[in-house]
């Protein structure tokens, strides 16, 4: 092939063959196709789209560009979960022990990423001593012994995606549904999952701002999974307001512990039960989501999910005592109330801007070399629909400096207080299978 012909074909809106797509991915990964041709090609995809079949070919070419984790030595169906990201999304920390306690092996590979808070790895590292470097052998053994492990992404997982994602970032081609879907799915497939449960967020704090876009992304990812033989399903969930109350690394570990004890925020708990039920059915430990839901509630009530979280922490070098005493986690020097400026009802809570307020405190990274302050963040005291009196706290800022003016102003500005009560937004939208 000549790359110029492949670009022209996509520019004209034609459907590419597996060979043409693989030619591009391999050529770009090794450097024989230059950035300028790859850029033009990505832009052609941005405007002309890709069929489900083309997306499957693109995904598999990226999977095959690097290492693939072999989880076949782990008994049972390995079920992975992926969330498209949002503000204060603590679900992974909760779901890993929750689902494992019901007998489904969870071999989780997680990322750090940029954003309002760290990723799952950063959150776990708020626990003193916790390390995320296991060899593939140790990883497999730990999952066989304990049913759960969480590690960092291996260096050579989907190098094609890494390179393409960086290029997309500077060529205005990130927000293309076929490119996002294949990027996310390539990493899940390379990480070895047999079944994948996707949590596609929608709303102000999400990548996909509208439910229609979230649904389209979910359909694309489910179609890719099916095409390559992985049982894949998606749940659309609300991210118009932050999930749960805590936004911050150490603060979210505390929230996860509380949720595993059955004292978690209502929305976070419900989303974990919905996603967890799907994971258990996919892992064939229950035949219906109703049965799975009862199993999940039981391992919360009898304490076994929390206990397993403690075992995970101990197995990876951390202090498991934090599950009984969360004051052992990093704590910020100052706890500062954010007072409401008027009385009424919370009608809007812009997740994105509240996330920025957390990032300004040091809870997240703006660039990949930024240091995170694991102790800081925001704990909301109100959610959409709640009544509030002037002067009452909307949130508590946890900070290591007293200069929190900027974050405080952002929070006050982006939590709208109206005169009329409103319904809280619907947490769970469509399910796509
Ligand atoms: N997250 C990913 O991993 N890839 C994308 O393309 C977008 C979000
Ligand atoms: Ca949260």
TrEMBL record:
EC number: 2.4.2.2
Highest taxon of source: Bacteria
Name of the top EC class for this enzyme: transferase
Gene Ontology MF annotations: pyrimidine-nucleoside phosphorylase activity
UniProt keyword terms in alphabetical order: Glycosyltransferase, Transferase
Domain Pyrimidine nucleoside phosphorylase C-terminal: 345-418
Catalysed reactions, as listed in the record: 2'-deoxyuridine + phosphate = 2-deoxy-alpha-D-ribose 1-phosphate + uracil; uridine + phosphate = alpha-D-ribose 1-phosphate + uracil; thymidine + phosphate = 2-deoxy-alpha-D-ribose 1-phosphate + thymine
A Pfam family matched in the record: PYNP_C
Keyword Cytoplasm: no
PROSITE patterns: THYMID_PHOSPHORYLASE
Cofactor: K(+)
The protein's assembly and partners: Homodimer.
Family membership noted in the UniProt record: Belongs to the thymidine/pyrimidine-nucleoside phosphorylase family.
Function: Catalyzes phosphorolysis of the pyrimidine nucleosides uridine, thymidine and 2'-deoxyuridine with the formation of the corresponding pyrimidine base and ribose-1-phosphate.
Protein name per UniProt: Pyrimidine-nucleoside phosphorylase
UniProt organism field: Sporosarcina psychrophila
């Amino acid at each position: 092939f000549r790359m110029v012909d492949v670009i022209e074909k996509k520019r004209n809106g034609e459907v590419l063959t597996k060979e043409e797509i693989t030619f591009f991915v391999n050529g770009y990964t090794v450097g024989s196709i230059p950035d300028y041709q790859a850029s033009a090609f990505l832009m052609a995809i941005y405007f002309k789209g890709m069929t489900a079949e083309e997306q499957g070919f693109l995904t598999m070419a990226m999977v095959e560009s690097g290492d693939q984790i072999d989880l076949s030595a782990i008994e049972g169906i390995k079920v992975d979960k992926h969330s498209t990201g949002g503000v204060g999304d603590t679900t992974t920390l909760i779901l890993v022990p929750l689902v494992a306690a019901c007998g489904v092996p969870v071999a989780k590979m997680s990322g750090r990423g940029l954003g309002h808070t760290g990723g799952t790895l950063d959150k776990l590292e708020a626990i003193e001593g916790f390390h995320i470097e296991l060899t593939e052998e140790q990883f497999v053994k730990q999952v066989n012994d304990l049913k759960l492990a969480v590690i960092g992404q291996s260096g050579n997982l989907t190098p094609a995606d890494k390179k393409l994602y960086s290029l997309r970032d500077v060529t205005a081609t990130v927000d293309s549904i076929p490119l996002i879907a294949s990027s996310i799915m390539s990493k899940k497939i390379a990480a070895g999952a047999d079944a994948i449960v996707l949590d596609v967020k929608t709303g102000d704090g999400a990548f996909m701002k509208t439910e229609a876009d979230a649904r389209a992304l979910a359909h694309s990812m489910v179609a890719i999974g099916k095409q390559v033989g992985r049982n894949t399903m998606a749940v659309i969930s609300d991210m118009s307001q932050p999930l749960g109350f805590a936004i911050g690394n150490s603060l979210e570990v505390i929230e996860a512990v509380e949720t595993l004890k059955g004292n978690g925020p209502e929305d976070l708990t419900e989303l974990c039960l919905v996603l967890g039920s799907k994971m258990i059915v996919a892992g064939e430990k229950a035949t219906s989501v109703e049965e799975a839901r009862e199993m999940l509630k039981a391992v919360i009530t009898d304490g076994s999910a929390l206990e397993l979280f403690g075992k995970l922490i101990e197995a990876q070098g951390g202090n498991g005592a934090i599950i009984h005493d969360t004051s052992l986690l990093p704590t910020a020097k100052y706890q500062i109330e954010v007072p409401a400026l008027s009385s009424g009802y919370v009608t809007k809570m812009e997740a994105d801007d509240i996330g920025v307020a957390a990032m300004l405190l040091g809870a997240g990274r703006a660039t990949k070399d930024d240091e995170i302050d694991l102790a800081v963040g925001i704990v909301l005291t109100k959610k959409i629909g709640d009544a509030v009196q002037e002067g009452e706290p909307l949130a508590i800022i946890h900070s290591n400096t007293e200069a929190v003016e900027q974050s405080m102003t952002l929070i006050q500005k982006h939590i709208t207080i109206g005169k009329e009560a409103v319904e809280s937004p619907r947490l769970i939208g469509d399910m796509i299978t």
